[in-house]
Amino acid sequence: MLELKNIIFYAKDTETKEGDGNRRAIIDNISFTFEKGRFYAITGPNGSGKTTLAKLIMGINKVDEGKVLLNGQDITDIPITDRAKAGVAYSFQNPARFKGITCRDLISIAAKTNEELKIREIITRVGICSMDFLDKQVDSRLSGGEIKKIELATTIAQNPLLAIYDEPDTGIDLWTIEPMVRLLKREQSQHGTTTIVVSHNRHFLEAADVLIIIKEGRLYYTGDLNGATPILNDLSNCNYSDICEGEYNARCYR
Amino acid sequence: MLDAIDKELLKAVADLESLPKGAYNIRRNGKLLGREISANILIETNREGNGIIITIKPSTKGESIHIPVIVSQAGLHDVVYNTFIIGEDSDVTIVAGCGIHCGSSESQGHEGIHEFRIGKNAVMKYVEKHVALGEGKGRRILNPTTRVFLEDNARAEMELSQIGGVDSANRLNEAELGPSSSLIITERVLTDGNQTAVSRNEIILIGHGSKTNLVSRSVIKGDSSQNFYATLEARAKCFGHIECDAIIMDNGRNETIPSLKAFHPDAELTHEASIGKIATDQLVKLMSLGLTYEEAVNWIIKGFLS
Question: Residue B299 and residue A105: Cβ atoms within 8 Å?
Fold first, then answer.
């Protein structure tokens, strides 16, 4: 469904001139095929490249090398708008806030309809937003949790073939996380949505058909949760073990 | 009789398809075109003959007054002095505004000087739109002034907008707030080409418990410029806030200076100001919903000025 072929993305450091041989790859030669209708969780240490990979798929960042194929079509060079029209949707970790644009406006744009009934159907389908969200402005007055729910609604409203959720649980209260997982699973099963969730949250990892662990911009593991658990336990101890190499009494206060 | 241009301008400034219902006073090219009064709203020409006095009886509720101005005569610069006396305990809406239609190379303009005296416990909503249309090359100039005096517990909400077509605008808003009164001003201005707009705002919070919120939204396109100056002066325990945001596009220029003056220890005054391009995260979000770059920009601007 979605194929990543040897994709590389370099840091755009101002101090590092391109071509001087010192470019740092944030995504370093990743190849992977996401199959239609499956649920993937991408996880890994902070700064490992998870969000960057998700943004490369959406076209928010442009790959420096390699190819991105959607249902066999090369979308490597097509812009965000066209990827959205091709059925890729993206839910941002830190959603944009707008002065004067309401939740209803965003859902109407996403669903390409102004019909009140259809907009209400979407809110009902999402379930975690109440109807009075519709007329709220998506501005700084919304709480972190409220805006994340609206972000989720706008993603689902697109009826995407491929939905990417970057840290969907950020700012969400504990009581909403499980309903959110159920919602994404329901979208997967009822609409055949290929789902990619970038998360550290146990609930999303448990819900995934396939776990992908990224470390230092590379695929570190792909497989089920059982296989991933020892690696995740190890990674959760310390992200800097490579530096001190586990030296005893290294004065590490992390 | 309204001709096609009059109708176009009335639609643009006051959302009117024809003559309004209720009280109205329509001024065209410096002269009275039509007037209607009601049992509770009296409109009369002032003694100097250069404006009108609108008197609203105490306890008048739910009525509206339309006072649009049309300037379509080449070379005309119309100046009008209007006074509004809003009776105690009343609740009314005033729809004002000026539409210029320029069809020649001569400049045309309008200066509306509006004074509002809002009685105790009265509520006034004031909506003012400024629009300039036409194919002529003459400059279109609009210099409005509002002076608002709020008595005890009076409330005023003022929506002032100038969305396109005006070459030069020089606005002055002044207000004095009595005890427990409140004033909300929302100003929306869009300039393009070589247009310029300046807005000066002087609000004095005199009464104990008075409140004001001044919101300015500016969109500055092309080579245009907008300057926004706002001063809140607190002379009692009161609350005041200024929120001024400007979006700059192309080579637009903006100067924004909010100023707070507290002359009472219990005054609470705040301001927030921002000037900048459209935020990238906003554009990317809307494009990720399938909008093109241009469509995303239009949505953001439309929302910002709504």
Answer: yes
